[in-house]
Write a structure and sequence with these properties.
Blueprint (H helix, E strand, L loop, with lengths): L2 H8 L10 H9 L5 H5 L5 E4 L6 H4 L6 E15 L5 E8 L4 E7 L4 H4 L5 E10 L3 E4 L2 E2 L12 E4 L8 H15 L9 H7 L4 H9 L4 H28 L12 H8 L8 H14 L6 E6 L5 H14 L3 E5 L3 H17 L4 E4 L5 H13 L4 E4 L13 E6 L7 H9 L5 E6 L5 H7 L4 E5 L9 E5 L2 H16 L3 E5 L8 H19 L2 H6 L1 E4 L5 H12 L5 E4 L12 E6 L7 H8 L9 E5 L6 H9 L3 H12 L2 H4 L1 H4 L9 H17 L11
Parallel strand pairs: 4-6, 9-14, 9-15, 10-12, 10-13, 11-12, 13-14, 16-21, 17-19, 17-20, 18-19, 20-21
Antiparallel strand pairs: 1-8, 2-3, 2-5, 3-4, 5-6, 5-7
Bound molecules: adenosine-5'-diphosphate and magnesium ion.
């Protein structure tokens, strides 16, 4: 049964009465491109036609839809400038009066002359007191539906009213409803407890009961889930190319491991094994490595990079910020170079001469491992033989950037890394066939982190406590968040607050003596890098920063994180920031300064250092759009899917597409 063929039998919108090309184009802009789409259009609400009620009772029902019956007492026509007019007719039923108001329908004054018996239905709104605005009037030719009638209402737009859409749907139902086929196998409908499309369409647009209507809605509620899964599967499947296998011999394997200044943890060793197996195959690796902040993902990435480079392939390591990209570059260069590998760093801030030279070396194959921001995937950059792309903090990149990477070649192995872990089932489901590795636990020898929402007494004692840490030779991050999103103005504003805090600390002897750096996004990248380097080398004890330090900065001697205006930041972001400390063996401290309105978040952080637990909580708070990066892509699936409620459906959808790969295409059109 090919669904596409059946669709053609149903035909294009122009087969409907009164739909020409112009109207079809308008409907298309509402997302309705075919008669099939029309039949599958979800009503925005189901109206149950009410019994007429007393005006006295209706006056207290603002926002509700009511039916009123009575006699017109007065009716006035007002001109309100230009061609605009307003008719206000007062209806009376023995219990009280209410105005019926009509805009730009001057003839209503005659129709509703005093003494006329009227039945009217509409929503009670405020029109200088409760009244009905443009109510529907029952007439002999067109009476109101009998009370209890169920009437779905539809969204309109682009010059087409919801009523017109509803009319077209009824027409389409009469002529084509019986032909509507169900593309989903029974098994899926069973799993989703949904009715097949044809029954659902009739139940949705001509429901006999509210329960039947709700059940039908379930069938069409599956649509966004199926579209989402279809996209995941299609993205995965578009990787038809074969990657180059990088086989890592036992000798190379132990040689690489000997480069690290530490033994891999059990978890790292396991993940390294998984990646070694992936790289040895020609099927392109698509692996998500999730591990809490500080879990040691970088070493795993370094292993993969060395393994590929040893096989003659090039590696790109992409990070979301210049700070992080350069840290990877500086941090890993010694290990890689000791192995005889050549590295470079490419960022947007590079001078053009330098960039040109680097690009040439990349293209000539004179670089083995390139670090950088998304600048790594600009058009002018060509690798001689890119075999592996590592994307750190992948959740910070949007779908668009990930696709940009994909455009560089199907034949590339990809390792995505994230410190914002998502539940495994959800990851599998969202990313389709992406393999997931998890680094659980932290490397040994980590001190504890004490987290405090500091206010009152704690807040007053904080400066003294910080001075003691400085005297003990430890280091401090002091974060002044950027305000709001990514706007230039916001960054500027927070740069100013960071400057102010910097000046304030400079005036305190304990801090000033040990040295303070100021880092924010308005500084040129190289300068920012120098300042962070001084902090990294321990030449200054305190760094005051905007959230540019958020991701990945690794200074094990830093034991204190102060976060101002912490209520402005999300749970995941706060956890990330806190993860900058607690990297050495000494005890660390995180002070959250912020508004009581974020108390719940602060308490959660005080209780838990487990990114997994926090992430689940965060997920619950933010919904799934963020997680998918859909928000950046301008997609509107977000909000339609609720991870908790829909997880079984998401999984069912994934399984369905595995069983019936032919169905994927069907859900991609929109
Ligand atoms: P993240 O997973 O947040 O990227 P990093 O890779 O930056 O974490 O690692 C955090 C710190 O842990 C680094 O200082 C790193 O050198 C150290 N580290 C990583 N693996 C181990 C290990 N097996 N034993 C000891 N320290 C390790
Ligand atoms: Mg990291």
């Amino acid at each position: 049964m090919s669904d596409a063929v059946q669709d053609e039998a149903i035909g294009p919108l122009t087969e409907l009465k009164g739909v020409g090309h112009a109207k079809a184009a308008r409907l298309a802009r509402l997302g309705i491109r075919s008669i099939r789409d029309l039949l599958l259009t979800q009503p925005v609400r189901l109206v149950v036609w009410p019994e007429p009620e007393s005006i006295r009772g209706a006056r207290g029902k603002k926002g509700e839809r009511v039916t009123l019956q009575g006699t017109i007492r007065r009716s006035v026509l007002q001109r309100i400038g230009g061609k605009r007019s307003l008719v206000r007719a007062t209806l009376e039923d023995g219990t009280g009066e209410m105005d019926l108001v009509f805009f730009n329908q001057p003839w209503m004054k005659e129709q509703l002359s005093p003494g006329a018996e009227v039945i009217a239905h509409g929503q009670v709104v405020d029109v200088r007191g409760p009244g009905l605005a443009s109510p529907r009037l029952g007439t002999e030719e067109r009476p109101l539906p009998p009370p209890g009638t169920l009437a779905p209402e539809y969204a309109g737009g682009d010059g087409i009213s919801g009523e017109v859409v509803g009319g077209l749907i009824q027409d389409a139902l009469d002529r084509f409803g019986e032909q509507l086929t169900e593309p989903l196998p029974d098994i899926f409908l069973e799993r989703a407890a949904a009715l097949p499309a044809r029954e659902s369409a009739f139940s949705l647009h001509r429901p006999k009961s509210v329960a039947e209507f709700e059940r039908a809605r379930r069938r069409f509620g599956l649509q966004p889930i199926l579209v989402l899964q279809a996209r995941c599967q299609a993205r995965r499947r578009s990787l038809s190319g074969a990657a180059r296998a990088a086989s890592i011999s036992a000798a190379t394997h132990s040689n690489i491991l000997s480069r690290f200044p530490f033994e891999l943890t059990e978890a790292q060793a396991r993940v390294v094994g998984e990646i070694r197996a992936d790289l040895g195959r020609t099927r392109p690796m698509r692996r998500l490595l999730q591990g809490d902040v500080g879990a040691g993902k970088t070493a795993v990435a370094a292993y993969a990079a060395m393994g590929v480079a040893e096989n003659g392939g090039q590696v790109a390591v992409m990070a979301p910020t210049e700070v992080l990209a350069s840290q990877h570059a500086y941090g890993l260069a010694p290990i890689l170079e000791a192995q005889g590998l050549r590295t470079c760093l490419i960022t947007g801030a590079m001078r053009s001469g330098e960039r040109k030279a680097t690009v040439e070396r990349l293209q000539a194959g004179e670089i083995d491992v390139a670090f950088g921001t998304h600048a790594l995937f600009s058009k002018d950059i060509r690798f001689r033989r890119l075999d592996l792309a590592v994307i750190d903090e992948q959740h910070r990149f949007g779908v668009a950037q990930r696709d940009q990477l994909a455009a560089k070649g199907d034949e590339v192995h990809v390792l995505l890394m994230t410190a914002t872990p998502i539940p495994r089932t959800l990851a599998l489901t969202i990313y389709g066939d992406l393999e997931v590795s998890t680094l659980d636990g932290l490397p040994p020898g980590r001190g504890e982190i004490v987290t405090r929402w500091a206010r009152g007494d704690d807040r007053r004692k904080m400066p003294r406590f910080l001075r003691e840490r400085l005297e003990a030779g430890e280091q401090i991050y002091w974060v002044v968040p950027r305000i709001g999103g990514d706007g230039e103005g916001e960054e500027a504003a927070s740069a100013v607050s960071a400057e102010r805090r910097h000046a304030d600390l400079q005036a305190r002897p304990g801090f000033a003596a040990a040295g303070i750096e100021l880092v924010h996004g308005r500084l040129p990248a190289p300068e920012r890098g120098h300042r962070l380097d001084r902090f990294r080398r321990g030449e200054v004890a305190t760094v005051v920063a905007t959230t540019v330090v958020e991701v990945g900065v690794d200074v094990s001697n830093a034991t204190v994180m102060v976060i101002e205006d912490a209520h402005r930041l999300g749970l995941a972001q706060l956890h990330q920031l806190r993860g900058r400390v607690g990297r050495g063996s000494k005890a660390s401290y995180c002070f959250l300064l912020g508004d009581k309105k974020a108390e719940e978040k602060f308490r959660l952080l005080e209780r838990s250092r487990d990114g997994f637990e926090l992430a689940e909580e965060d997920l619950r708070q933010r919904g799934m759009g963020d997680l998918l990066g859909l928000r950046q892509s301008g997609d509107n699936l977000e909000g339609l899917i609720d991870p908790e409620r829909d997880l079984p459906l998401l999984i069912a959808a994934r399984d369905l597409f595995h069983e019936r790969p032919d169905l994927v295409q069907h859900f991609l059109g929109s």
